[in-house]
Write a structure and sequence with these properties.
five-stranded parallel sheet, disordered C terminus, Double Stranded RNA Binding Domain, 41% helix, Rossmann fold, single chain, globular
């Protein structure tokens, strides 16, 4: 049975919200809920999941919820959930742990007063490349409301001074006879204060921007535009179109940031990809360094070696999606020259910009992940070497001044790009390139690890297609055993098809027949032949 969580308007929270919550879930009457009002909506979703897992009403031995201060933040509180179900199966407990962890994580980014999402701002009210220690989480609506409700100290008799005491007489305007006029100075200051209060929400929205990086100079873009008159008609038309796109996307790109709870995130990533423990340890170490600087996602070049289909690309896709970043996959096995990365020479009539330029200059982020897929199959003969550009790009100092061969006027700062590669044979990769990567051997997952991978793939498939509330949150042991026979790459594709098959048959759960049918259609069913008999 699917239970819809109650709908609570985030803008109309009242002290009665928890009362409404208990009214919607009567079985809560026996248990203690000592949480902030802003958590009511996410708790409602958690209780709905508990009913899905254990039935309505769920049979519980114990339930206690509260929250406490977290990281000394003014707006941030940590949700604590203590729950024990009666005679629960292992699968039910696993599902419960999953959804409780989700709720606890969401609570650290939710305003405990109004339920809005918290955002990072520097403690002086600005956003810049500051130390993590100087940044705080705030709720913009509540911060704006607090500002508006502050009393005017100049008019408060309790302060023991009048309005004129707060002004520097040296800065006030003088009257025609040379005397200073504090009244005019006061009036102007009050007017400025009123404007500041009226625009407070806008000011916060303006200062609370994500970290950005200018990946190229606007002066060079203007120079590029002045050079158009010297080009052929076709080349001028091509360049005008490119310049238009550059102006539309702008030169300031967002720097993708890692989660504040990066330790917890890496632990969850290991549960989803248990055979990637070495590379996840490597990533966690890099996140520890970034956490003490600017929280920007920054990873040295790394190479994942292993047989096809074990989840190398899926791992990078998951990492990118979780960070809300950008992943660009370049198939090096089909690349015939370095133009795939660095563009082709400008004198060619069909010159094109490379993948790095398109991702960085025309994209939205300054630190995208560029995946060099099957790097060991890249062409490298005397005439063409599709990896030649990497000698510069894998060195951050040199990457700050990268130029695409098709647009040599524009200098790109590619020093924040994250380079990842996959391959199957180390001996086929030239040593100067290999030495620039941290290499990790990824083994095929064990049977137990495939169970964890299949569970993760199923959850991600439900989230990807927004079906989390329509299907059972966990797979049966029989379905898990069946799907785990395939490789991680095959699992993802089969599950996506199987969910559609179940929906077609008006079921909210998967069966072995769904898995077998979808696996045959993808991996064993003979192709239909067309012709005369």
């Amino acid at each position: 049975m699917h239970v819809e969580p109650i709908s609570l308007d985030q803008d109309t929270f009242t002290p009665h919200s928890l009362i409404q919550l208990r009214a919607h879930y009567p079985w809560l009457q026996a248990w203690t809920i000592d949480t902030s009002e802003g958590f009511t909506s996410l708790l409602s979703e958690l209780f709905a999941k508990i009913e899905i897992i254990f039935g309505n009403p769920p049979h519980l031995d114990f339930l206690y919820l509260l929250d406490e201060a977290h990281n000394d933040e003014l707006f941030q509180r940590k949700l604590l959930v203590f729950i024990e179900a009666t005679n629960a199966f292992e699968a039910q407990n696993n599902a419960l742990d999953y959804f409780v962890a989700q709720a606890v994580h969401r609570a650290t980014r939710t305003c405990p007063r109004c339920g809005d999402t918290l955002e990072y701002v520097d403690n002086d009210g600005t956003y810049h490349l500051a130390s993590q220690a100087t940044r705080v989480l705030i709720c913009k609506p509540c911060a704006a409301l607090d500002w508006e409700m502050l009393p005017d100290p100049e008019c408060d008799p309790a302060n023991g001074f009048d309005a004129f005491d707060t002004f520097d007489m040296d800065d006030s305007e003088e009257s025609e006879d040379g005397e200073q006029n504090p009244l005019e100075s006061e009036t102007e200051t009050e007017a400025e204060l009123e404007i500041a209060i009226e625009d407070d929400s806008e000011v916060i929205a303006t200062t609370a921007k994500p970290l950005t990086l200018s990946v190229y100079s606007l002066n060079e873009l203007n120079t590029l535009e002045t050079e158009l008159t010297s080009l052929t008609r076709d080349r001028e038309k091509q360049m005008r179109g490119l310049i238009t796109k550059l102006k539309q996307t702008g030169n300031d790109k967002r720097l993708v940031q890692q989660p504040n709870d990066w330790r917890q995130y890496c632990a969850g990533l290991l549960e989803s990809f248990p055979n990637f423990s070495a590379v996840i340890t490597f990533i966690s170490h890099q996140m520890a360094l970034s956490a003490n600087i600017d929280q920007v996602l920054a990873l040295p070049p790394f190479l994942l070696m292993g047989p096809p289909g074990i989840g190398k690309t899926e791992f990078l896709l998951t990492l990118t999606e979780d960070m809300q970043g950008k992943l660009e996959v370049i198939d090096m096995s089909t690349s015939q020259s370095g133009s795939a990365l660095a563009g082709s020479e400008a004198f060619w009539a069909n010159t094109q910009t490379g993948a790095l330029f398109n991702t960085l200059a025309l994209g939205e982020v300054a630190n995208p992940i560029l995946l060099l897929d099957e790097i060991d199959k890249a062409r490298r003969d005397e005439s063409y070497n599709s990896l030649s550009a990497l000698h510069q790009l894998l060195e951050p100092r040199q990457a700050k001044a990268f130029k695409d061969l098709s647009v040599p006027t524009l200098t790109l700062d590619a020093s924040h790009v994250i380079w990842a590669a996959t391959g199957n044979n180390l001996e086929r990769i030239e040593k100067p390139i290999l030495d620039r990567f941290s290499v990790f051997e990824i083994d095929p997952p064990t049977k137990e690890q495939m169970y964890a991978i299949a569970k993760n793939q199923y959850q991600r498939a439900l989230e990807r297609y927004q079906h989390s509330g329509l299907f059972e949150p966990i797979l049966t042991e029989e379905v898990l055993a069946t799907i785990s026979r395939f490789t991680p790459r095959q699992v993802r594709k089969i599950l996506e098809s199987a969910i559609g098959c179940a929906a077609f048959n008006q079921r909210h759960y998967l069966t072995i027949e769904d898995i077998n049918q979808c696996s045959r259609s993808r991996h064993g069913q003979p192709k239909a032949k067309i012709g005369f008999v």
